[in-house]
Amino acid sequence: MHSLSAFLLSLPVVALAGHGAGVHRRHHHARVAGIAARQTPTAYTLEDDYSGPDFFKGWTFFTDPDPTSGQVNYLSQSDAQAAGLAFVQSNNITKIGVDSTTQLQPGQPRNSVRIATTKTYDSGLFIADFQAMPYGCSVWPAYWTVGGNWPNDGEVDIIEGVNLNVDNQITLHTGPSCLMNEATTMLGSLVGNTCTSSNGANAGCAVVQSGNNSFGQPFNQMGGGVFAHSWTNESISFWFFPRNQVPSDITSMNPNPDSWGTPVANFPTQSSCDLSQHFTGHQIVLDTTLCGDWAGAAFSQDGCPGSCSNFVADPSNFQNAQWAISSIRVYQPSGSQ
User: Fold this and answer.
1) What are the DSSP E strand ranges found in the chain?
2) C-alpha to C-alpha distance for 74 and 55, rounded to whole angstroms
3) What average pLDDT does the chain have?
4) 155 included as an active-site residue
5) Per-residue model confidence (pLDDT) at position 25
6) Distance between CA atoms of 67 and 29, rounded to whole angstroms?
7) Nearest to 315 by CA among 63, 136, 133
8) Where is the GH16 domain (predicted)?
9) DSSP 8-state secondary structure symbol assigned to residue 247
10) What pLDDT score was predicted for residue 212?
11) Nearest to 302 by CA among 56, 59, 22, 110
């Protein structure tokens, strides 16, 4: 496993987009490269705070068949809460998980939860604090945002991975005419520059985080961390902070992205992709699916035993398949609301 020190000591890299091979992705139905320095840090105002006892008041529960072909049955809010798959603990940590008690027949779908905010966003500073995320063979968790008309309104995958992955993948999906061709400074590794997605080709433009415990079991073992991303018409930029490295401006709810250093991933608007034309009206989404188009296809090569379908039948395989959420907060530049 990559150590935390590797993350702290890593130097920024300048990545020039190139077509990546073998990047498995989700399909969700439903100025200048780099970051310009500012003379004065932007002040932010809290717009929405998803946390504590009222967490679920701002969300809807998705109950349609999984569009990524996952072997899951997404429950309504009442059913999920009755089954103990969606609740807020006395310490104000929200838990959202996969059923880990019911024995199934091979091929049967397992109960799970997918939620989306009732509110939509066209920009903002999004800061999500997770104590834990789902992981394990067959498990495919994601924290993302998406517009109502996929892919033309865009999709932003902030947390995503499958099976026994330990490196998070960040991806943008768009409608036609979006290529990330310009060099940009970031800590992650660019593995694809074609953001344009469709039903038949939806890899998107992706950045892989490595060496910083950004996904799966290592993430949970260190007590989680914070994923932040800034979405403007000029750029969509992402940062990750392990639990013991979370900046004080985040914990005090006075975020200052100018002080956070080089982002893990940075997608600037450019001549080959005007971000303002590709991202609009996004809901925030959290889900955990099983097997499906990515986790199922990569099941064996990721070192998982047997078949994915058979694996899903055993409830003991899903003790760690749950989100533990401290908060998801959305900020806007002061005076912009």
Assistant:
1) 13-15, 44-50, 59-61, 72-74, 86-88, 94-97, 110-112, 114-117, 124-132, 139-146, 155-160, 169-173, 184-186, 189-192, 205-208, 225-231, 235-242, 265-268, 283-290, 322-333
2) 19
3) 90
4) yes
5) 46
6) 6
7) 136
8) 59-303
9) -
10) 74
11) 22
For the cut 50, the answer to whether the pLDDT of residue 7 exceeds it is no
What is the distance between the alpha carbons of residues 325 and 128, in angstroms, rounded to a whole number? 8
Phi, psi torsion values for 302, nearest 5 degrees: -85, 5
Burial-class residue 244 by CB neighbours within 10 Å (0-12, 13-18, 19+). Answer: exposed
10-34 pLDDT, tens digit per residue, is: 334 444 433 333 344 455 433 333 3
Backbone conformation region of residue 291, classed left if phi is above 0, alpha if psi is from -120 to 50, else beta: left
Q: Which two tokens stand for residue 196?
A: 């344009």
Q: Which of 232, 228, 226 is nearest to 333 (CA)?
A: 232
Q: What's the whole-number mean pLDDT along residues 33-50?
A: 74
CA distance 172 to 178: 10
DSSP SS3 for 308: helix
Look at the block and give the residue holding tokens 């997404």.
Answer: 74
Of 15-19, 40-44, 53-57, the least confident = 15-19
pLDDT at 271: 95
CATH, domain 4-333, list 3.90.110.10, 3.40.50.11030, 2.60.40.1930, 2.60.120.200: 2.60.120.200
If DSSP states are collapsed to H, E and C, what string results for 284-306? Answer: EEEEEEECHHHHHCCCCCCCCCC
Confidence tier at 334 by pLDDT (50, 70, 90): very high
Consecutive H or E run containing 2? none
Whether residue 234 lies in the annotated active site: no
Q: What percent of the chain has pLDDT over 70?
A: 87
What is the residue type of 72? Answer: V
Write down the domain spans for the chain: 4-333
What are the residues facing 48 on neighbouring strands? Answer: 330
How far is Cα 241 from Cα 10, in angstroms, rounded to an integer? 14
Question: For the ranges 39-48, 172-181, 185-194, which has the lowest average pLDDT?
Answer: 39-48
